[in-house]
Amino acid sequence: MPIYEFDCRPCKDRFEILIGISRIEEAKCPRCGSDKVKRVMSTFSARTSGGSSHSHGDNCAGCAAGHCATCGGH
Predict the structure, then answer these.
(1) Number of structural domains in the chain
(2) 26 is a domain residue
(3) What is the pLDDT of residues 12-62, one digit of tens each?
(4) For residue 67, is pLDDT > 90?
């Protein structure tokens, strides 16, 4: 099961939960209990064949192509 990151609209808390994709609509804020949450892009880490790794939270097309102009990884 993946870990998803959410922003709670009412209390502005950001939290992560381990939940199946089929149950994502059931996500609730652990702080205030609201179900008015929005899934956000989480930070990830990538390892290249050269052994270096880097991470960032943006969708970086460069990473998929083997180089990353956004964060400087390669």
Answers:
(1) 1
(2) yes
(3) 999 999 999 899 999 999 999 999 999 998 776 667 776 555 555 545 544
(4) no
Q: Which of 15, 58, 31 is nearest to 5 (CA)?
A: 15
Give me the domain span that covers residue 25: 3-40
Integer-rounded Cα radius of gyration of the chain: 15
Hey, what are 56's tokens? 């960032």
Indicate whether 23 belongs to any domain: yes
Residue 2 one-letter amino acid: P
Q: What secondary structure does DSSP assign to the chain, as a single string? A: --EEEEEETTT--EEEEE--GGGGGG---TTT--S-EEEEPPPEEEE-TTS-EEEESS--HHHHHT--TTT---
| pLDDT at site 53 | 54
0.85 cut: is pTM over it? no
